[in-house]
């Protein structure tokens, strides 16, 4: 029987945790809307600043670069300042970057403000995962993180499609401002309404300690799971950006190309929720993680094998299985032995940072291989790396999960008058 994991204080109303999940999920929607809405204005931005589309696409790259480097500092901020303030801060910084983007008088200024927006998203992302984990460590942990992962996919779809209509109607600056206002509104809601569980005072902010850093940054399993997701994470980011261009180069029907580009994003909604439901009820998270990453690799390998009427099928498979894996992967720090609740954000930040390297390296390698052996070899490369790196998770410990005591308190009351003792 699997250990149910560490128990958080149980004197909160049962509905409160779902309210906290709704706040964090709204944050992930706002975060990803502001990640992708800028792409709906690429044509107008290129015309206004005299840039070709490949140059304008750098706006996505600079956001991703900034997004990849501040996960760990964001987690440390959450330890020091508390989850609520750090959640709000990350979204507020992203909102400021989005709103200031609309004032850019030059392309260089626009690049700068997109980097600021990415930095804010980086702070929010790791802390948002931790904020869900601390409310659901004892029940429906994977399902709750599946819901917040689905919110990521919803925000992506809104940014790419709903905001395209707004951009067409009112211009790219108005569209970016709308995204920034949404992000600012959710930041305010987080500051006003998000709470940590009663009795978990360390989550409101504690001193950063050497032991806390050791728990979060020198845990072998954290590193192994970060490396295990390197291939699946980087391959998905590459596939989601490149599948449309690949379909056009193959002269596939426009409807098929559009469907593939849409499904590789929105397939994450059912994928995330299905993963959470299964992981909480039936199977080992490690087994589900490994199986999902392999199935993502199979879907990637099938992309060049698909025909003019089946191109959407592997795209759906890639999106579904990536988010399936991502939802399970996020549960690892929240259920890990020896990791205090206030250090979960930093541990998530480390995992995201390791995996984010794949988000830079693999799309770049895909381009190099495409210019040489060609597209089939490039898609096969992504599939092989995704399947190969997941082997790192097989080196992790599969034992019972337990928590370390918080630095704010060595003992926490449990239902029935028992006490949690340090391990």
UniProtKB/TrEMBL annotation:
PROSITE patterns: MFS. This is MFS transporter. Residues 20-401 form the Major facilitator superfamily (MFS) profile domain. The keyword Membrane applies. Keywords: Cell membrane, Membrane, Transmembrane, Transmembrane helix. Its main location: membrane. It is found in: Cell membrane. Residues 403-423 are annotated as: Disordered. The chain crosses the membrane at residues 18-36, 56-79, 86-105, 111-136, 143-164, 176-194, 222-239, 259-279, 286-306, 312-332, 344-366, 378-396. GO terms for molecular function: transmembrane transporter activity. One of its GO terms (cellular component) is plasma membrane. It is a multi-pass membrane protein.
